[in-house]
Amino acid sequence: MSLTPSNHIKAGTKAPDFKLMDTITDHLITLEEVKGERGTVIMFICNHCPFVKHVNEEIVHIANEYRQLGFGFAGIMSNDVKSYPQDSPEKMKEHAAKHQYSFPYLFDGTQEIARAYDAACTPDFYLFDADLKLIYHGQLDDSRPGNGIHSNGRDLREAMDAVLNNRKVSPDQKPSIGCNIKWKE
């Protein structure tokens, strides 16, 4: 397992727009369509990464809980599927069904969206406010495969709770750690 940290991105950065295929519904989905009234969480995830597998259940819990509170969610998979066929759109659809994703699981086959977001790893979490300006970019929580810490989504939950309680999101944000995005050559 590689240990790739997320890149530092300046708070206030506007969310790059996208129009990607949702592997669950086979429809094109835009950022505007996933945008939440209170905020929007964009997650760069994939099927095969052990770091994503470790937090998958908690990602689903958070999405199910916070969507009801006005947050939008989308998972984006940007890996090179020629080198990693387990991340293909067909496998993404199976993976989303198996894990009961309640959010779009979008295929970024050109990798343009990962580059626009300056995504580096899976998982990589971005929280944007109601105006689609970045207010949190970091880890889900302190858990990692094999470190004995149960995934509870604390860091991302605290940022969303700050939004819900009209508080400023803490600027103290730990980078996410995971597998590097598998870039095309």
From TrEMBL:
<protein>
    <submittedName>
        <fullName>Thioredoxin family protein</fullName>
    </submittedName>
</protein>
<feature type="domain" description="Thioredoxin">
    <location>
        <begin position="9"/>
        <end position="165"/>
    </location>
</feature>
<dbReference type="InterPro" id="IPR047262">
    <property type="entry name" value="PRX-like1"/>
</dbReference>
<dbReference type="Pfam" id="PF00578">
    <property type="entry name" value="AhpC-TSA"/>
</dbReference>
<dbReference type="InterPro" id="IPR036249">
    <property type="entry name" value="Thioredoxin-like_sf"/>
</dbReference>
<dbReference type="GO" id="GO:0016491">
    <property type="term" value="F:oxidoreductase activity"/>
</dbReference>
<dbReference type="GO" id="GO:0016209">
    <property type="term" value="F:antioxidant activity"/>
</dbReference>
<dbReference type="InterPro" id="IPR013766">
    <property type="entry name" value="Thioredoxin_domain"/>
</dbReference>
<dbReference type="InterPro" id="IPR000866">
    <property type="entry name" value="AhpC/TSA"/>
</dbReference>
